[in-house]
Amino acid sequence: MSHxxxxxxxxxKDGQIHYRIGGDGDALLLLHxxxxxxDEFRELMPLLAARYRVIAMDLMGFGDSDKPPRLYSxxxxxxxxxxxxxxxxxxxxxxxGNHTGAFVSGEIAVAYPDRVKQLVLCxxxxxxxxxxxxxxxxxxxxxxxxxxxxxxxxxxxARSRYVGSAALNHRWVLDDLKCFGYPLYAVWxxxxxxxxxxxxxxxxxxxxxxxxxxxxxxxxxxLGLALAKDRYFVSQAIPHAHVVELQxxxxxxxxxxxxxxxxxxxxxxx
Length: 270
Prior knowledge:
There is one protein chain. The protein is α/β, with parallel strands linked by helices and 270 residues long. It has a single domain (6-269), classed as Alpha/Beta hydrolase fold, catalytic domain (Rossmann fold), CATH 3.40.50.1820. It has 13 helices and eight strands. It has an eight-stranded mixed sheet with strand order 1-2-4-3-5-6-7-8, with helices on both faces. β5, α3 (100-111) and β6 (116-122) form a beta-alpha-beta unit. α4 packs antiparallel against α8 (185-193). The chain is globular. The two termini are 20 Å apart. The relative contact order is 0.15.
């Protein structure tokens, strides 16, 4: 049976949050990477909605959510996720976060432990200060509107070698363009959070799955952003976590490998 995925908005004091929702059962909140949106989970949501009430939100500053009135911290992003759950009458949820969304998910489990049933952290990178500073610099240089429009082709080519299809690349570029001309909210937030993430994550006590896409990890090292071996800080901080390394999982794996990811997640939850 197909479960339709609907879209809606939540009004908050900092602006509107756009989210997608569908399915029945226990709640499952999905938090996307930077600079994506809930579109990152378009293929995955219907598969998970067969068993769960699945919600995917656009973090503030991304997708169709409003730009926040100030630079957000990871704690701010966690607070808005809790506001969305509150508005939907959800006392406790399973949470899956990818990249930036994983840091936010981890913070939710630390700051609001009673609200998290089970946790999935996908593609958490161990940036270190040098790698995070370089990531911020590259986003600042790459997300500037240029008079000749050359930024459009630059974003098209940025990940074309591993995105897999022109249609998916088009969706990514649309998300990219919605971030142009604004402060890089989540990059700044994760950059600060990473300094204490290892210590912070030691407070996570709920059942946790750590999922890494191996091609994703290798791409970050290829780009000089994060050493592959440094990602293990998260499994060391959460020693009770179950770890899965997905061969062939790229930065785009949520869109490219939804069936495999859904099976891994559903097996863990059950």
